Amino acid sequence: MGTHLISGTGKFAGATGTLEVSGTFKIASKDAGFTEKADLTLTISGTINTK
Fold it and tell me: In the prediction, which pLDDT does 30 show?
């Protein structure tokens, strides 16, 4: 499952392709209003075809 790249600017104008993004993060507290700093890990894969 991917997300279609629908536009670009500069040298990527007219680019096409698909990208897939997945990520994870941990929540330490279920209490409302609790402030925490959680690391976010993202994985991006796919193809971009430039003109």
Answer: 77
